[in-house]
């Protein structure tokens, strides 16, 4: 698109290509390279210089050995623009530089378009400089220029050497008048200047007799009123002084406006602070009143709550259940101290705590299990089920009685030989578990679903109490389908029996016990820490456990009619043997003087 000698001044201006560049030569180099590859002819390198903000104090002065920082910044900017000019020279393309001084780059480019009647502009388009297929305009200044530039300007937006968007220009909206004084050979004061009209007004640009110029290369376009723009080589010194004075005046005015705005904002903040302080005082007084009321109510109800917590449940399990707040639980557990955590299970974390001088177990439930367990345990009251004392809807927690001997799993896994469960206690535990399962199955149709030693707790007398029951309710169903059922509880109960008899882990216990019975060597698998097992009872208990573990659910025994009678008979025998034990030195009958004569 090189310009021929026969072109008119207007055509020459129209064919001129302007390339917007920034301070970072590496970033803008790809934009200029793209323009040089796709266009020829006359180039103009345009730039928006952002002057430094100076303190316009009258005391500010610069010695003879130092220069104004503004001038140093301009000199650095000129050096940067010279690098772009050098690129054009290497490409054998004539080029000149133009720039404007303003803080807003987008507005500065729009000003340059208006001032120089630019109809062809190439500029960067992406803030991050990373090109990808189908990318859009991401640079804020590119979006601003695309929206506000004069409609006669055709703009190519480039990212990393790739055109990503092009805005067509409408030259029908372009208006340029070349007066006779502009043409070569004309005379007068405005000789050598062309008058370019844009929608924002008239701007003068310098030219010489051999080339139509949009302005003189040495003239800087400051952000001053358009009527104050000065052109011509004889006006440069006056223009620079005027521009500098205008810059300081504008800065003073801007600082004054900022100061007044800060005063207004500070006044608003002080007024808001007074209002907020009054509201805070009112809230604090109200909070203190509520705290006093809460303490009075807590003290008045403390004794009543403690008494109700100790009341036994009714015949149908509808005993009193207290309700506790989050703060009470936090105080009871010393802010949920980790040293007080009893266990971390599937359904939540359990802490040991003290409520109203009573030791309790506080179970912090996961929300998905909370309401279901509350409904089950409030209606399911039985001596061999863990007793519910209270609830905390705020904390989704349940408060149970505290059982000091922990779980059956703890007892079977302990290495303390001085505190092992005797065989009599183990038979009683079997009977307790069976009684709890019969109650859940027959009275409420509840399937425990997770019966194991870890969910069987022991009180101070080693009575067994079942917990974590009621995952779902279901009729008797074969566990081979993968569904929970009454039969699956019987299967799990058989495993607990084997654990109590052998004291071993659950791995392959069925096979181990069956082999021992087949070879007549049951004593080899009995837990020696339980004491001397009676052979008949141990054998009967082993066969009962294996029948509960039958793979066919139809062959498993019924708890009420087949399992319970056996365990009840064993428990009665154990109690009788314990009560009948006496030392040889003790007489079998009381002395005669202790017997009532009437009897």
Automatic annotation (TrEMBL):
Entry keywords, A to Z: Coiled coil, Ubl conjugation pathway
Protein kinase domain span: 336-567
Gene3D superfamilies from the UniProt entry: HUPs, Phosphorylase Kinase, domain 1, Transferase(Phosphotransferase) domain 1
Broad EC category: transferase
UniProt feature, compositional bias: Pro residues: 587-599
Low complexity compositional bias, start-end: 577-586
Source domain of life: Eukaryota
Region described as Disordered: 198-217, 575-599
Residue span, U-box domain: 589-599
InterPro entries cross-referenced by the UniProt entry: Kinase-like_dom_sf, Prot_kinase_dom, Rossmann-like_a/b/a_fold, Ser-Thr/Tyr_kinase_cat_dom, Ser/Thr_kinase_AS, U-box_ubiquitin_ligases, Ubox_domain, UspA
Reactions accelerated catalytically: S-ubiquitinyl-[E2 ubiquitin-conjugating enzyme]-L-cysteine + [acceptor protein]-L-lysine = [E2 ubiquitin-conjugating enzyme]-L-cysteine + N(6)-ubiquitinyl-[acceptor protein]-L-lysine
Coiled coil regions in record: 252-307
Cited function: Functions as an E3 ubiquitin ligase.
Name of the protein in its database record: RING-type E3 ubiquitin transferase
Encoding gene (name): LOC115748525
């Amino acid at each position: 698109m090189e310009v021929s000698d026969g072109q008119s001044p207007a055509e020459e201006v129209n064919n001129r290509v302007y390339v917007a560049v920034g301070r970072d030569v590496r970033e803008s180099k790809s934009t200029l390279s793209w323009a040089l590859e796709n266009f020829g002819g006359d180039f103009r390198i345009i730039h928006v210089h952002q002057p430094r903000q100076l303190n316009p104090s009258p005391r500010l002065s610069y010695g003879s050995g130092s220069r104004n920082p503004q001038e140093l910044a301009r000199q650095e900017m000129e050096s940067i623009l010279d690098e772009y000019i050098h690129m054009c020279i290497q490409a054998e393309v004539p080029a000149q530089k133009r720039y404007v001084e303003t803080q807003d780059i987008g507005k500065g480019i729009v000003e340059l378009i208006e001032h120089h009647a630019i109809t062809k502009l190439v500029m960067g388009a992406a803030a991050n400089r990373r090109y990808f297929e189908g990318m859009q305009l991401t640079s804020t200044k590119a979006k601003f220029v695309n929206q506000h530039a004069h409609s006669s300007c055709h703009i190519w937006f480039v990212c990393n050497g790739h055109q990503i968007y092009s805005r067509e220009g409408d030259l029908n909206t372009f208006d340029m008048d070349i007066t006779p004084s502009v043409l070569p050979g004309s005379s007068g004061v405005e000789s050598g200047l062309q008058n370019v009209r844009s929608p924002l007004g008239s701007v003068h640009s310098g030219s010489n007799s051999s080339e139509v110029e949009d302005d003189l290369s040495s003239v800087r376009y400051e952000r001053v009123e358009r009527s104050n723009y000065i052109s011509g080589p004889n006006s440069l010194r006056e223009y620079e002084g005027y521009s500098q004075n205008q810059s300081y005046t504008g800065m003073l005015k801007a600082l004054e406006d900022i100061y007044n705005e800060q005063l207004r904002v500070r006044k608003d903040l002080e007024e808001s602070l007074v209002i907020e302080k009054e509201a805070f005082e009112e809230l604090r007084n109200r909070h203190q009143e509520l705290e006093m009321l809460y303490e009075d109510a807590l003290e008045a109800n403390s004794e009543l709550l403690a008494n109700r917590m100790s009341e036994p449940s009714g015949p149908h399990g509808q005993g009193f259940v207290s309700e506790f707040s989050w703060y009470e639980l936090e105080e009871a557990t010393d802010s949920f101290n980790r040293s007080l955590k009893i266990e971390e299970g599937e359904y939540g974390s359990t802490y040991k705590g003290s409520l109203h001088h009573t030791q309790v177990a506080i179970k912090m439930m996961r929300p998905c299990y909370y309401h279901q367990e509350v409904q089950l345990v409030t209606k399911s009251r039985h001596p061999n089920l863990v007793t519910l004392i209270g609830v905390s809807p705020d904390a989704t927690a349940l408060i149970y009685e505290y059982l000091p001997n922990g779980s059956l799993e703890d007892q079977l896994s302990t290495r303390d030989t001085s505190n092992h469960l005797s065989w009599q206690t183990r038979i009683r535990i079997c009977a307790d578990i069976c009684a709890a399962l019969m109650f859940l199955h027959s009275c409420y149709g509840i399937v425990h679903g997770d019966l194991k030693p870890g969910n069987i707790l022991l009180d101070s007398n080693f009575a067994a109490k079942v917990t974590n029951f009621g995952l779902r309710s279901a009729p008797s169903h074969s566990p081979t389908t993968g569904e929970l059922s009454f039969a699956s509880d019987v299967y799990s109960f058989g495993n607990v029996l084997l654990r109590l008899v052998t004291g071993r882990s659950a791995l392959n216990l069925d096979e181990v016990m069956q082999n021992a019975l087949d070879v007549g060597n049951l004593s080899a698998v009995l837990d020696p820490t339980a004491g001397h097992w009676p052979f008949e009872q141990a054998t009967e208990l082993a066969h009962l456990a294996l029948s509960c573990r039958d793979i066919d659910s139809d062959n498993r025994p019924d708890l009420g009619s087949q399992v319970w009678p056996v365990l009840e008979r064993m428990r009665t025998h154990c109690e009788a043997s314990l009560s009948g034990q006496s030392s040889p030195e003790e007489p079998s009958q009381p002395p005669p003087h202790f017997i009532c004569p009437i009897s």
